[in-house]
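Quick start: what a row looks like.
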Amino acid sequence: MLSNTEIRNLKEGTLDTIIQILHIVEDDWKKFMAFIPMDPQKENSDRKYNSEHIRLIEEHSRVINEKCAKILFDEWGTSGQIRPTLKTVQQIALKVEMMRLADEIADILGEPHPPRPTQGPGAPVTENISLLFNESSSEIRDTTAQMKSVNNEPNNDIQGQSTEQVCNMPNFKLIAKSVGSDDSYKQESSNEQFSEQLNDHQPYLQQVNFQSSSHQLDYQSEYQQYQTSVPNIPVFHETTEGLTLSSKIDSSILQDPDLTHFDYEELQTATNNFSNICKIGSGGFGVVFKAPHPRHGMLAVKKTHDHPNQAEVMRTFNTEVRYLSQFRHTNIVPILGFSKNGPVPCIVCEFIEGGSLIEKIAEKVLNERQRIAIMQGTAEGLRYLHSNRTDHPTVPSATDPSAQNVSRINFVHGDVKSANILLTKDFVPKLCDFGLTKSYEETFIMPTTFGTQVYMAPEAMQGTVTPKSDIFSYGIVLLELLTGLKPFVLADNTKIDIKTYIYEGTTCGKSIYEFLDQSTQWTKAGEIFMLVKKCLENNRHDRPTSEAICNILNAFNDN
């Protein structure tokens, strides 16, 4: 096997071995993930992932019962224009001193094992146990004497620190590893590596940089830099313990007359204690259940995850409810209210009985007219979000039926995808899941990337978000409607994102007509694919606005 073999092309057994190694120590996969570069070919590339991505992988792991490293490699191996290779894995392993993983890659490549550093966690352990204990005992005696000396001071710096902070001595780890106490070694290693935290406004991946290859790596300083730069993952900077649920909800939400306060126990009963029988969807923020209601008919109840980071959960909850309560449009899912008196908050929306777009595409039940209508309705929903015009078709406010109730603030949805487009029984599209929605003026910079990777625009990967980011995501949805393919395509035992799959095919001489969903009779496929290519332009300035897209699609009706 060659060093430039892409990890997405690895044999299953080889990849499984790498994944197993990353799970020997509980948090090693997190440490590895924290050092993955945005561009594997650049020495000083920015980091690709952050603590939010790690949290999402952990949550998805619990849902599908899959190892976190497996989910990571599935995502990493198929994202970005430059695919990671075995050499990339080995370079990261050396960077973070995971010598067992680096040795395994060397074995796969038929190369000699890389030299170990002289110090740090990757250093070789002496086989002379007596010498190791003697040296350790000497250091322990010296450190104990220093501690006694310091403790005699009335105002010393040790007061208020934990035992781990005071007695964090590397030789304890070496002794444990030498005598085979794996459990204690794993626990100490995990605690030691993830003990430091950064300010909430400083994404930790931006604090760590690869060293230039023009000089020999200083493994000890690199490891120390990692220890002081990477926070406990996932990062919980805030606590909401001791506060009532109502106190964590925005006052504007609590005072909104258009929002109904649903009793949690009532929702619990209607969903059969939130059973899987009533479950209709799930995501990183919560699980959605179908629930009959005597006054409001069928409801869609999004129950937030009972996550340790309740501050983040409440931020997402407040964002989605606050924005949904402002949006009144035919192509945006109507919110009815929320629940505030349970262990976790719930968002209650009107139940959209047609299911999600991604489901209908897979079922092959949509004809061309319906698909174009879905494209038009989705574009209209985006136009409503992106502009402050008041001439869009709206849903009246409950307190003022004649009011347009259109916000004067412009918004970016942030997570446009086929799974977030619900359909009525008449196939009218409704945008949903506004937990990542942001208000904007022209452009804003996110400290971390957000959204779903395969749908994300190139600039959004770097944190620059505009309405044109939604347009790129919309272009991927158009490709799904046009081809009937899933966001990722399996071709020659390789998982490829739909854009790359179609573009590589058409670049190699194939026609778009060879990729069309054959369950539909197409008359506008060529024009739609031209629109797709405009939406998926790498330069955001070359993409059309949502209003221009509406005009293009509406012109189809005139032909």
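That is the whole record. The domain at 361-556 is CATH 1.10.510.10 (Transferase(Phosphotransferase); domain 1). The first helix runs from residue 12 to 22.
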